[in-house]
Amino acid sequence: MVVAFVSDIHSNLEAFEVVLADVAARKIREIYCLGDVIGYGPNPRECIELAANLKLSLRGNHEEAVLNYAEDFNDKAKSAIEWTRNQLNSRDFDREANYRIWNYLDEMRESATLGSSLLVHGSPRQPTREYVMPQDVKTPAKIRGVFAAFPNKLCFCGHTHIPGVFTDDLQYQASKVLGNEFAPDGRRAIVNVGSVGQPRDGDVRACYATFDGSSVRWHRLDYDVAKTMAKIRSVSALPEFLAERLGRGR
Length: 250
Ligand SMILES: [Fe+2]
What we know:
Number of helices: 8
Number of domains: 1
CATH superfamily: Metallo-dependent phosphatases
Strand order of the largest sheet: 3-2-1-11-12-9
Bound molecules: fe (ii) ion
Low-confidence stretches: none
Order of helices and strands: EHEHEHHHEEHEEEEEEEHH
Strand content: 15-25%
CATH class: Alpha Beta
Number of strands: 12
Structural class: alpha/beta
CATH architecture: 4-Layer Sandwich
């Protein structure tokens, strides 16, 4: 059975809708979200409603921040989190609808297993917090430590918004270097599925991944970036940088 992994939607409804339509066109019914449905973007409520229909949605650091405090967020991310929290408490919607959203966020788990794979937002060591970045291969002890922190063969994650694979020989390959396809062939691997709503690998297109049990495939899709940018710019509490970066994919 083929499953789809989406992550880091970041309240980008235009990108999320395009991805969900593409997944549906492939007749894939099991979609796992690896966290950060919200934060940064202009449509948190709508994105949560779509995520609630998925098979599973894990907690990301932005869900954690909206539920608790955004203490280790930079100022731009923090003002987006405060605006997001206000949207989710908005009196324009009835209380029950707001309760449903907050309950949904509160019940999100930090990790899950799927067959012989572990699913997390950031890393097996610190599921909502730790970033495993491409340049971390220069610090082999870190990558070794991350691999030592989980028993599963594969780990699927998001968080860095950079799609690619770390293998247990401590190598990293970006999805584009791999031609958007990776077969573990018995190796252990940490697979970053990329970001739906705020890609940071220089490609502005929405990103998600599918897995058929033997191969991972990344998919890149055009969406109406200009529309999402204009929506962000229409909200004064959302910093200009959050719009501008969508246009650069950084
Ligand atoms: Fe994120």
